[in-house]
Amino acid sequence: MQTTSMPLIFLIGISFLLLPTAQAESTKSKASPKFTFDELWNLETGFWDAFLYPQNKKQIEGNSSTVFAPEVQGRVDITRTFDGDELNREYIFGLFSDPSHVSLVGVPINYSITQFTANENIASATTIVTFNATTFGVLVPVTIDTWIEFDSQGKITQYDATFRWFEYLLDYLLESTVAKINATSSDEAVGYISDILAKTICATHEESCTGENKQYNNSSDCYDYLTQKIRFGKSYELGRNTLLCREVHEHMVPLRPDVHCSHIGPSGGNYCVDDMDYEQTVLQKYFNGSWIPFGYGDDQNVWLGSS
User: Fold this and answer.
1) Where is the signal peptide (predicted)?
2) Among residues 125, 205, 284, 305, which is most buried (max CB within 10 A)?
3) pLDDT at 307 over 60
């Protein structure tokens, strides 16, 4: 009796130990759709096709997106987090949809995916996007690292994007400006660009931010605030209390003045503000879903918020 009961007890114990893991994997597999590698590649390229000008203009029209799920979560390292389909369409597509408008990088005209891996419903890629920076008169290759998660319909439920070498890019644009205006230093270039950006933001404010959405008394107060009261901004400060942050949000003001006017105003509207330090930024609990397939790492993933 003793020799036969011990193995049985041992096996029962092992089954209880393995049960939570099996249940976790089962839950994960039911919750996450499974695409083939080819399908994930097509979803990835489909996003970048939609991102290029002038296709991106279609994404800011209508009431629903063909790319984003309704409750999409998005984060871009040099700016901030963006919640919901409408805001993400305005930010990801609307920001780069007008070649005639003053802009830091202009409009995207071509892309090349240089790295790609994918599993389950998650794709990770490195993409070099060529922008026509019409304000600076140059074509600029920009390297963007992305993690994208898709739902069962192939729409993006969350994404995490990093602009690689963005500090180098900003320096390059300043150097291009130095040559363009025959300046002797990058400080002169910053002053030149600040003047253009501030005038553009203030003109948009005067046209779109009226009534309850008004942020400045007049164009003079607006220009003074943007050029004298806040800093120009470093490469990682397009989501802080800077002129560069307000340049980003100025593009979206005409789309929804009631939402975006405060972002270009003195308050920053909770987007152009200095509210998080380095550690808070790095450890921000934001994403509802893990970026690791099959349920791995959930117990120690510091980016996971409450789903």
Assistant:
1) 1-24
2) 205
3) no
